[in-house]
């Protein structure tokens, strides 16, 4: 819903959605930065992109199984990045 709101033609709704979107990204960044500061921005960008893509694919009709498989693959990628 936040991603939909970002593209709203209603300026007030769009501004609120953007605030939630940035808050979510900040939360992700802060969580990663406490453990892996050198990878925090890269992983946050990756997560933001994956979440946007999952949202888009859900709207296009991807099944729960497909979405979960993609999320699991993204999780494996993050594990690999954070091991380095």
From TrEMBL:
It comes from the Bacteria. InterPro entries: Tet_transcr_reg_TetR-rel_C_sf. This is TetR family transcriptional regulator. It comes from Escherichia coli.
């Amino acid at each position: 819903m936040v991603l939909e709101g970002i593209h709203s033609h209603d300026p007030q709704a769009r501004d609120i959605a953007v605030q939630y979107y940035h808050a979510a990204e900040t939360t992700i960044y802060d969580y990663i930065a406490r453990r892996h500061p050198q990878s925090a921005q890269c992983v946050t960008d990756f997560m933001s992109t994956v979440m946007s893509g999952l949202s888009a694919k859900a709207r296009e009709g991807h099944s729960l199984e497909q979405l979960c498989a993609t999320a699991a693959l993204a999780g494996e990628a993050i594990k690999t990045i954070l091991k380095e």
